[in-house]
From TrEMBL:
It holds the Pfam family ACBP. Keywords: Lipid-binding. It comes from Microvenator marinus. This is Acyl-CoA-binding protein. One of its GO terms (biological process) is fatty acid metabolic process.
Length: 84
């Protein structure tokens, strides 16, 4: 495991213990950066209008299409650090 991956994993654990709940926009950023860093570009089909939460998550992740996994991991770490 690289240093970046170790810091990414540590950030993903520390975000669970934030003292204050982030806004929905920040939560979507965290979700999409985590998914991009862990899995790469979004896959699967976009959820339908009857699943607004799933659709918002999919759309947030889809906006990061083409962003490298290392870049997404670093941006995730930076965002978590700004919240702690």
């Amino acid at each position: 495991m690289s240093d970046l991956e170790a810091r990414f994993e540590a950030a993903s654990e520390s975000v669970k213990q934030l003292s204050k709940q982030p806004s929905n926009d920040v939560l979507l950023q965290l979700y999409s950066l985590f998914k991009q860093g862990r899995h790469g570009d979004v896959t699967g089909s976009r959820p339908g209008f009857t699943n607004p939460v799933g659709r918002a998550k999919y759309d947030a992740w889809a906006k990061l299409k083409g962003v490298g996994r290392d870049d997404a991991m670093q941006r995730y770490i930076d965002l978590v650090d700004s919240l702690t």
